[in-house]
């Protein structure tokens, strides 16, 4: 934060936002860190309160800051929601389908699962086991385990210990979850799809436990194709 300096030319709020963004991205401020009070920022940047507020609001919209009235402005935790909201809007404008999103998963997820199988820790395996247990309990109550089933895939991405892959898949699945929400309910058909997903997850988990990389890849591909069959041809 000591790197902040007065802004002199160009659109003031954009220059302020760029300095703050660069400081965050360079590691000068970390998630949870509190920015100086508005009065101090005015002095550091030698800019008006209006320009400071405009810059902070823009960075909040971009997902880099969290503004808490009465508490201050903080560097935001890693959050894919702004990216998924933006991607969702673009896909809806372009009339993309759930089927197209699932095709993207066919390309990405088998390779992600294979990499995860190389890097997976005992703790990663434990989280997958717990997820399957919780999903099975939900299905026992005749309710769709869709949320837990999506979480299973996110846990696999996290097990790659690759933040790029993890965030990319989370964004994709956030969009898919939003776009498919209108066609997924607790009907017998969708309960059947949910149970089938859990069955696949059990097979995938077993392949992870046995460290069978190619088996993990093949099972994930078959699983995504099954999902595609269940959700295909839904247009927006």
Draw up the topology in text:
Elements: H1 12-25, H2 38-45, H3 49-61, E1 65-68, E2 72-75, H4 81-93, H5 98-119, H6 122-140, H7 146-158, H8 163-180, H9 188-209, H10 213-231
Antiparallel strand pairs: 1-2
Helix pairs in contact: 1-3, 4-8, 5-7, 5-8, 5-10, 6-7, 6-9, 7-8, 9-10
Shape: elongated
Q: Looking at this structure, what is the CATH superfamily of the largest domain?
A: GntR ligand-binding domain-like
Beta content: under 5%
CATH architecture of the largest domain: Up-down Bundle
Round the mean pLDDT to the nearest integer and report it: 87
CATH class of the largest domain: Mainly Alpha
* SSE series: HHHEEHHHHHHH
Spatial strand arrangement across the major sheet: 1-2
Q: pLDDT below 50 for ≥5 consecutive residues: which ranges?
A: none
Distance between the termini: 45 Å
Structural class: mainly alpha
Number of domains: 2
Count of individual beta strands: 2
What do you see in this structure?
This protein is mostly helical. It folds into two domains: 12-75, Winged helix-like DNA-binding domain superfamily/Winged helix DNA-binding domain (Arc Repressor Mutant, subunit A); 81-231, GntR ligand-binding domain-like (Four Helix Bundle (Hemerythrin (Met), subunit A), Up-down Bundle). It has ten helices and two strands; from the N terminus they run H-H-H-E-E-H-H-H-H-H-H-H. It has helices at residues 12-25, 38-45, 49-61, 81-93, 98-119, 122-140, 146-158, 163-180, 188-209, 213-231, and strands at 65-68, 72-75. Strand 1 (65-68) and strand 2 (72-75) form a beta hairpin. Helix 6 runs antiparallel to helix 9, helix 7 packs antiparallel against helix 8 (163-180) and helix 9 (188-209) runs antiparallel to helix 10. The radius of gyration is 22 Å and the shape is elongated. The model has no long low-confidence stretch (mean pLDDT 87).
């Amino acid at each position: 934060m000591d790197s902040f300096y007065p802004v002199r030319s160009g659109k003031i709020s954009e220059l302020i936002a760029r300095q703050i963004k660069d400081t965050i991205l360079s590691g000068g401020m970390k998630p949870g860190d509190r920015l100086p009070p508005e009065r101090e920022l005015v002095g550091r940047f030698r800019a008006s309160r209006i320009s400071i507020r405009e810059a902070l609001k823009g960075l909040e919209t971009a997902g880099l800051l969290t503004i808490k009235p009465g508490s201050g402005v903080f560097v935001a935790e890693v959050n894919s929601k702004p990216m998924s909201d933006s991607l969702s809007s673009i896909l809806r404008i372009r009339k993309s389908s759930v089927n197209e999103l699932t095709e993207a998963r066919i390309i990405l997820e088998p390779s992600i699962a294979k990499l995860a199988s190389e890097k997976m820790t005992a703790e990663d395996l434990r989280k997958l086991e717990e997820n399957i247990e919780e999903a099975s309990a939900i299905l026992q109550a005749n309710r769709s385990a869709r949320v837990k089933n999506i979480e299973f895939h996110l846990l696999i991405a996290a097990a790659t210990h690759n933040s790029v892959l993890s965030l990319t898949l989370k964004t994709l699945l956030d969009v898919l979850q939003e776009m498919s929400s209108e066609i997924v309910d607790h009907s017998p058909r969708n309960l059947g799809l949910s149970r089938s997903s859990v069955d696949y997850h059990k097979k995938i988990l077993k392949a992870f436990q046995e460290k069978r990389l190619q088996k993990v890849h093949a099972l994930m591909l078959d699983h995504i194709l099954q999902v595609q069959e269940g959700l295909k041809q839904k247009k927006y």
